[in-house]
Write a structure and sequence with these properties.
- By secondary structure, the protein is mainly beta.
- The chain contains one helix and five strands; from the N terminus they run ββαβββ.
- Strands 1, 2, 3, 4 and 5 form a five-stranded mixed β-sheet that branches.
């Protein structure tokens, strides 16, 4: 018999060259709601976009990517 279990969602934010793993505050929330939740701590998320999810290590990873360019 096969057993289906939901995969954990993990959110990755690249800030200053480092990947920050953010846990899922509420599995029922949409990805955009999670991004808005973490925007209070990481203001760069207010202008970020979400990449397509990837499955890695029994978790679904979403990457928050900044759309702001660098100057210079």
């Amino acid at each position: 018999m096969l057993l289906a279990t939901p995969l954990e969602r993990v959110f990755i934010l690249k800030d200053k060259g480092q990947d920050i793993r953010l846990t899922d505050p509420e599995p029922r929330w949409s990805v955009e709601a999670v991004m808005n939740y973490y925007a209070n701590v990481y203001p760069i998320l207010t202008t970020a976009k979400v990449s397509a999810p990837q499955i890695k290590d029994d978790a679904v990873e979403y990457k928050f990517e900044s759309v702001m360019g660098t100057k210079g």
